[in-house]
Amino acid sequence: MTKVNLITGFLGSGKTTTLRHLLAHKPENEKWAVLVNEFGEIGIDGALLADTGAVLKEIPGGCMCCVNGLPMQVGLNMLLQQAKPDRLLVEPTGLGHPKQIMALLASDTYQAWLTLQATFCLLDARQLADEKYTGNENFRDQLACADIIIANKEDTYGDEDRANLDAWQEQHAAGRQIIVTRQGGLDVNLLNTPRTNYAELPDGQHHHGHAAPASGIAAMRLRDGQGWRRALNQGQGYFSCGWIFSAETCFDTVQLLEWVRLAPVVRVKGTLRIPEGTLVVNRQGMDFQIETRQGAPLDSRIEIINDREAAWNTLQSDLLRARLK
Asked: What positions does the domain CobW/HypB/UreG nucleotide-binding occupy (predicted)?
């Protein structure tokens, strides 16, 4: 039997950082797999998790939580058959609704294969003061279905944020465990916590801006001879634009960082080749994290998400000008 944990959380709550932390602390004698879904079509998290040693399957385009769940089932079946993991961590898109995913994981189809354990939801408590988040149905329902809530990014909280978290817990999460942490520093032993929250949730709003994700059930790749490629997606009131560049493409570090910092969007995430190696960028609002890694990536990928349509062509032109070659 494969133990399964669902790791949810709204945009920018720190799901990928948490996954990296958990994978770095997994028992040496266990084989773990990750099924990851992103709202954008490009697929960034696979590149960010590629060096963790886990078996990884990506489902881009926000399609994991569609009602029919077909991309989810295909990806899940492939992982179970090929990897036979001891534990599976499932990371849905931050804009996804958890009900269909949880129903599939707990269905009769997988009873002989999976043991669904505690579901975790990451929360940036600063978002509790913003109606844009608290008024979002998926934001509320991700928290409602969690067995354990992780109040992440604690080092960025002020007194008002802590007070809002206490008030929210009293009103919405009485009796459930809330763990305050930073940088996704979750105790790996908590993954063995049994599932106890069986709250009945509505189906939630879900739609794509097109009939089907352009990249199917795999992260986007370049066609032969392509130097770069762009992909768009929209749904749940958000819009995404992402780019993938060939392995030979190299960016000017300073120009690239300025582009990421100044882009008038709510979310930027990417892993790109620079002269020093690989640059990992992660920006949520004004929170901006960067990391450099040795060695060049297999390709360069960057995705931006906004709560309204942005000037994609202008942003693209500025990004292309940041290329060295």
From this structure: 4-178
